[in-house]
Amino acid sequence: MTPTIVLPVVIAGLYAAGVYLLLDRSLTRVLLGFLLLGNATNVLVLSASGPAGEAPLVGHAGSGEMSDPLPQALILTAIVITFGVSAFLLAVIHRSWRLVRQEVVHTDEEDRRVAARTPRHADAMDPDDIDPVDLAPGDRAAVVGRPTDVEERLAQRYPDTASDDVGLPPTRGRTT
What we know:
Blueprint: H1 6-22, H2 27-48, H3 69-100, H4 109-115, H5 137-143, H6 149-157
Helix pairs in contact: 1-2, 2-3
GO cellular component, one term: plasma membrane
Region (Disordered): 108-176
Transmembrane segments: 6-23, 30-50, 70-93
C-alpha cells in the first residue's frame, strides 16, 4: 500500500473549515464547525491507526494479521462525545432563539466598556487610592459614595484600624 496525499489534504481541509466556522458569531456555524473538527479528528485517528487487518477476534486470525481495536474504540468514544456536545449546542441555539429571536452572539456593551479602560498598575487598584475623577461614570458609584452603616460603626469603634484590614477585630459579642 502506497501513501497518498489525498487523505491528509482532506483532513487539513476539514480542520481549516471547522476552525473557520468556529470563529463565527452565528451559533449554527459554531455547531457545524465543531462537527467538522470532530469528523476531521476521527479521520485522522483512523488514518494514523495503520493498515486494515482482520477482525480482532482471538482465534480468527493471527496476531500479526489483526487490526488494532484501540483506534476504533477511541473513534467510537469521540463520536459519542461529539454527539453529546452537539446536543448541548443545539439546546443553547434553541434557547437563544426562543429568548431573543436570533442565534447570533453580539458584542456585549459591558465588555466594550471594560476593554476601553486604561491599564492600571495593581497598586493603584486599592479603592482608597483611586481618584474618583479618573473613573468612568459607571465605576464611580462602587468607590465613591456614602459609607454603609456597618462601615461607620466600625470606624467609630476602631478609629485606628483601616476598614479594609484583614485583621479587623471581631465585632460580635463584644461591648465597649
